[in-house]
Structures are given as structure tokens and as C-alpha cells.
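Q: Start with the shorter request: fold the first protein.
A: Done. Sequence, then structure:
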Amino acid sequence: MAGLPPAIVQVLNQDALAPLLAKARWNEKLLARVRQVLPEPLGAHCLYCLPRHGGRLVLYADNAAWAARLRFYQTEVKAALQELLGPIAAVHVRILLPQGKVEKPPPRIKTPPPEVLDGLERAANAFEDPELKRCVQRLARALRRA
């Protein structure tokens, strides 16, 4: 079985990846501690907790509404993590934008009622300028098709 790739556990335990894995586990521990001090619905919307240089802590929420609520709990978060991280100078809350392509619904076209379209066609026929007349007639036809 010499041709088989190494097991994922062996790869993760290699010397080069061990510090990264330890840091990821540490960040998970910090996040778990943060979620303990947050109220129930808010904790699930706090996605990441990352310590930064200079005593800064960055919390990531999944949208602006939850980020705003999370900002009200900065004092509690600081107190909860002080024993693990030492003095925390500032807590920053950021929004983690969705990854990948976000599909937007197609724009809804609001078509005018038939009476308005009839009036638009009458107005187009009243124009003396042939180019302007043609443009307004084309607009009326396009709105009828929409």
C-alpha cells in the first residue's frame, strides 16, 4: 500500500502544520468562551474571535444587524477573555460577507396601466419632430410588451 496518500491526521500532525492547528484550536476556545457570555440567539451569529497585536480583539458577525447587537456586549467579552489573553485594549466587530456568488432577484418592472400607454401613444402622434415621435412610440410599444 505504498501508493496511498497519508491520512489527514498524519498530515495535520506534521511539524509545519502543527502551529497552525494549535492556533485554530486556540481561536475556537476563545470563540467558545465569547459565546458563553452572549445571549442565546446572538452567540450563534458570532462566527469568529481573533486576537490581534496591541491587545485588540476582532469579532466577526454574519450580518450588520447581529454585529450591531454584538457591539453592546464588548465589555462582557473583554471581561470574559481578560484572564486568557491579558489586557484587551479594544474589541472590534466586523461583518463577514457571504462567500461566493450571491444571487439577486431580477428587477421587477412595474408597467403602467393601459390608459397611460394609450395616452403615451396619443402624445407620440402629436409630436412634429419625426425622431422624437418614433422614440416615444417605441417606448410605448416596449412598455406594452413588458
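Q: Next, the second protein, separately.
A: Sequence, then structure:
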Amino acid sequence: MTHIRAALQRKACPNCGSGQASEITYSDTQEFRGITLDLDGLRASVCSQCGQRWFSAEQTEANHATMKQAYVAKREQLREKLGLLSGVEIARLREAFGLSQKEASELFGGGPKSFNKYESGEVLQSQAMDKLLRITAFFGDRAIDFLRHGHGREQMANGAAPRNCVENRLSSSAAKPRSQ
């Protein structure tokens, strides 16, 4: 481990000690968080004497950024294929209700940093979360109020059918689709 750390910080070859190295740009296919990525523009140092390849701290950082960018692009393609809201659409919906990412996470669930991850493309929202967001967009502030105040819990605790609780709440609010 110390050998690798030292190689990251120096320009000399970690194998033969030669100070004659050049930087190359290359393409590779790698697994990242369970997704196969075709990566272009990766950077490495190569020793002119022995051919050893290593990565400086700067190259490692740049390669990680390239990998993350490719990962996010691949996730967005998957979202589109599955018919899920994009990260930009989720951010717009959240902002339309004046919610911070933290507030949205608390209101809709999914974990403390879920909306940050949905919007950045790091994580795909579940189909259930996607439907909840779409329902909220459709019913507007009434849906936000419903989620904030847990309307229907009391009726369900007293044996009312869940469908009736939701229908009663929405009809008592004179539910109209939110205009976009």
C-alpha cells in the first residue's frame, strides 16, 4: 500500500525508478457500481525504460471523474428506458413545491440524501417513488398536505379501507389536477 501511495505522488517509475515517463490517454471497459462502462480519455503515466504503467493522484482523480460521468449518463439512459422521471425533472418538481432536497427526502422517504442522489443520477428512484412523485405533481399542494399531515391514518386505524380514506381526503379537497 505504501508503494502504491508513493507512486501516486512521484513522477519516477515505481518499478525501476527511472524519471523518464510520459502520459498516455487510453480507452477501457470497466465495471463501476455494477454497470459496464466504455470509457474514453483515461490517463496514465508510462515509464519509457521498462513500460510500467501507474497513475498520479491527478490522473486518478481525472479518471474517477470520467468514470462517474459515464456512469451518470448510463443511468440516465436506463431511466429513459424504464420511463422514470429524469434527475432534472425530479429537481423541478421538488423546487416547484419549494422543498429542499432534505425536506423532500423527509416527506417522500427514501433516505436522508435520496433526492440528492436521484437528481445527480447517482441512484435511480424506484418505480414506486416515481409514481408517488407523479401523483404529487398531478394533485399538487393537496398531495403535499396529505403527505405532511398523514391524513387517512386515523380512518385506516378505525378499519376504513385505504382507498376510501384517500378518496375521501382528495374529494374533500375538491381535487383538481395541478396546472403546470
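Q: Describe the second briefly.
A: Residues 2-82 form a domain with the Ubiquitin-like (UB roll) fold (CATH 3.10.20). DSSP finds nine helices and three strands in the chain.
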